[in-house]
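Protein: Acyl-CoA thioesterase
Species: Nocardia mexicana
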Amino acid sequence: MTGPDTPDAASPMPWTQRELQRLLDVRPDGAGRYIAPAHGPTERNVVEAGQLLGAAVAAAAKEVPGQRVTSASMIFSRVAEHEAPLEIATETLRSGRTFTTAQIRIGQHGEMCCAGMVLLDAGAADLVRAAEPIPHVTPPERLRPMAIPGTEVDGRDIRVVDDAYDPDPQRTGPPELYVWTRFRDAPEHDHLHAALLTQSITHWTVAAALRPHPGFGEAMAHRSISTGITMATITFHDDADVTDWLLYATRATYTGRGHAQGEGRVHTRDGRLAASYTVHAMLRGFRTPGAAASATAL
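Structure follows.
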């Protein structure tokens, strides 16, 4: 497949908003089945968990177009590669006028990579309303864009409060990160707003968990320490426009025994609670020298 975002086969594929949307906007491939296209060559040939969960959100939204994705949860049991398409199977376990429950499985090369459940809802007016307030943090206009190699996506602006997503493992702080994110271009469909919002939720838990510990940092992930997202859940509350600033507030609530647990919220710039999420991660030393290069599964 070639196109504006496709260089020659030997070159790494650039990361752009358009490319993220192409990967997340899964296409039908028969009854209950969808395909997420391959990205192509990359420095690290591992699909992020947030991208897999975002693809599941998009698949469920297309499978049940009359309802809105309310919550999605997945367990990531095997690494997926950027250089091959993803095969997505949806199964509607129960379809109702109010709620629908669907199971999503994502595989590659005939092997299951992750599986989860999605809840969809027909919607309702408020009976009552209350939500956690937006944290009092530095606004995005007073922060500089994050410019760490390997994190840049053309068309996406990320700004971290206090520059706390720091590659220096000696810089410490509380086990939390506050990150503003927005995209340049408005997606055409609501499910892509939800999928793009979802894609970022798994970025921050490992960094937050390592932050209090001198000598350990996010920059060491996949190099001198073994990390990976094993489970993630997102619940959508209010509608959000990904071209407006969204604040991801992530806190690691437990780190130990080779695990890290995080919880977070996504607030709109005007203070509404758009989504909440939980993330479980593996966090441990490599068993043998060189294992980082040869590992193929979590």
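Remarks: The CA atoms of residues 170 and 251 lie 19 Å apart.
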